[in-house]
Amino acid sequence: MKTAVLACVVVAARGLVPPRGAVLPRGAAVARRAAADEGVVSALGRLREDLEALDADAAARPRVSSGEAAALAASVSAAAAAPFLENPALAELGVPAAALVVAAVGVAAEYGGRVATATAKEVAAVALRTASEAEAALAAAERAKSACPLCAGLAAAAAAVALALPRAAPPLLLGAAPVAGALCAAVGALAHARAAARAAAAENLGRRRFASSAEVGATWRSQTEMVFARDLSERRRHATVALALLPAPLAALVPGSGQFRAVAAASASAAQAAYHVAAAEWGVAHAADAVADKQRTAAIIDTYANQAARVGALLPFTSALAGLCAAAAAVVVEVAPAAAVLFPAAGAVCAAAASVSKACCEADASAAAAASRGLVAAKKRGGTFAGAALRGF
């Protein structure tokens, strides 16, 4: 007996003490958390690499247009040649005029960059608003779906009550449980229909807003067609409620005792309510996936817009420097015409920097507009709940 007890103690001790090299549960949780953190860091790194790739692509393109380069080169050349002219009045007029042309190029670049930044910000605002509206529609679908589990629980309770009743129970008491189960199934079907409609609205929100004119024309509806579509939707909802009341009476027609038929009717209603719970969960889950995709796309668009704003913050400074160079050239040309040539050259450098910033802003704005196409090409629901269930089986 003592040997058996000792053997049990040894076995228990082996189960309590982990073998050498084993990872404790706390260590495993820490390792999983570290792996999750590494995944997040890698995802952020990929996003940063994408932004850097966009900057590299913009850097590979000519940032200063040919017209701007020609205007800057001609202005600097004219300013450099003006002091060597025989007429001093032409020198006094040519250097400030060249500086003004350079300043105009810088101001034009600032205008283009600010317009591109504002466009990117507006696109980002529309995308964020669309994502917020989709999240609100998803919340409405969740609220409508919350009645389905309650109805399924009440229908299952009604089936349990029908099963627990004795055979000698009054017919009125035996019929109360199937009727309650049928009503719960009908309410669950109505909640499922509402949740499905709101989930579809959350899933499809934003596709027409960011679609092209050809895509919108293919799905355009007149007011008359929209009225008929709403009427068809109401009819389908009424038909859903009517069909939800049929399984219980049909199940009550099976041969057997009164209690058996009551249990069969209540069980059919419970099964129907459980089906509506599963179907509503499936539809809301697909809508949640689509809404998460919209929010991720909107965040990417907002990132590009913020990058355009960051690059465009340099534009007022460069244009102001170009204007300062123009004013300084107009003053210095009266004192030292040869030294005044430096100011149009410095203004040309500032104007070229403004042109570079404008090109970066336009590249970021184009990236934000291209990313908005992700709201149109969001993942669509694949098939129906019945098809998904059959594929699962």
Draw up the topology in text.
Layout: H1 2-16, H2 25-60, H3 66-81, H4 88-145, H5 147-164, H6 171-204, H7 213-218, H8 223-244, H9 247-251, H10 258-312, H11 315-332, H12 342-371, H13 385-392
Helix pairs in contact: 2-12, 3-4, 3-12, 4-6, 4-10, 4-11, 4-12, 5-6, 5-10, 6-8, 6-10, 10-12, 11-12
Description:
Helix content is 82%, strand content 0%. With 393 residues, it is mostly helical. Helix 2 packs across helix 12 and helix 6 (171-204) runs parallel beside helix 10 (258-312). It starts with a helix and ends with a helix.
In this structure, how is the largest beta sheet organized? none
Question: What is the average of the pLDDT values?
Answer: 77
Distance between the termini: 52 Å
What's the helix-strand series?
HHHHHHHHHHHHH
Outline the low-pLDDT stretches: 1-24, 386-393
Give the helix tally: 13
Strand residue content = under 5%
What structural class is derived from the secondary structure elements?
mainly alpha
Helical residue percent band: over 70%
Query: Nearest-angstrom radius of gyration?
Result: 37 Å
Count of individual beta strands:
0
The backbone outline, from C-alpha atoms, is rod-shaped
Domains, number: 1
